[in-house]
User: What shape does this take?
Amino acid sequence: MFRQLPAKLHNLHLPLQLRLWDGCQIPLGPDPVVTLNIKDPSLIAQLDQLSLNLLGSSYVEGRLEIEGSINDVIRLADDLCQALLGDRENEDLPLHEAHDKATDASAIAYHYDISNDFYRLWLDRDMVYSCAYFETGKEDLDQAQQAKLHYLCRKLRLQPGESLLDVGCGWGGLARFAAREYGVKVFGITLSQAQLTLAQQRIAEENLQDRVNLKLMDYRDLPQDGRFDKVVSVGMFEHVGYANLPLYCKILFNAVRPGGLVMNHGITTLHTDGHPANRGAGQFIGRYVFPHGELPHLALISAKLSEAGLEIIDVESLRRHYVRTLESWSARLETQLDKAQSLVTEQTLRIWRLYLAGCAYGFRRNWINLHQILAVKPFADGSIDVPWTRADLYRDLLR
Assistant: This one.
């Protein structure tokens, strides 16, 4: 059986071993810390075309079991793929999909409507499902997410009495925070019924019904009369799709008043051509985690915002912050696997274990990034009314 393995596997020095369906153990290096238990014999024939997508899908589908910490599993899986594939990519350029309302609603429900209690296991107390902000690096997850919410509100220069549009409001953490801490009125939208139900419950518990109004709505149905003073979109444009980016940006432009600010916060790809993340990781995410998701490069979303009429005034990478956020999420999930198993299916839990730890690894390796882009809608004469410096953003951040 050992002779049937790809020749390159014979000369590796990875702390990894294979255990075959008949109990035979094949070390791929000294002192293994991870064991891949191959349950499906046909997987052996595919090892010469190994990718993170193949390994991940095999685990999700039960063709493969894993032993070892999830972080070691991800690291060694990538080392193994690199040893067999080198640095060459094994993915074709993506075919950009048409995103209609039904397709997008289905994709959002698949990702977000699995179980509010499952998300509650590993998110912060406000269930903010986006990159946290670690001002000193010593904060815990709750502190870092509160800091991120302050940071967003400060970048938007929110003032009491202003109206804020929250595109992709999730469980309402930012909407409630902005209303409570900055005195604004918030209108938010989501395509997830599960998110909306819990968000409305929390709004009622905090007696914020007069200041926060959240609805189940597609972004293409937003009012286009410039009624909002500020607009924020966090972790949403990744679901829009390349084909709809111009429309998405134009909708943000039309929703905000002249002089108003727009914040777009989301994940961006490393490759300007939209090539997925390395060694099949992007294929795995597209298949199991974010169906129909498409990550644009920073240059592309910046171009589309500009073409829509918005002037970009600030861009910031939070990649390192997202590494720490994802590591925290993954660690919190790993400590509660038994409880998680009672809330979601075995396959779903396997997907999320790989996704959270794998994304932390991908962000750490700079395969993907995250950018906050702050833009303004100029007045008719081209003028803008924003501070000359960033000084106000960093003053007393954790108030």
User: Anything to note?
Assistant: The chain has a mean pLDDT of 92. The chain has 14 helices and eleven strands. The chain has two domains: 2-85, 101-394. The domain at 101-394 is CATH 3.40.50.150 (Rossmann fold).
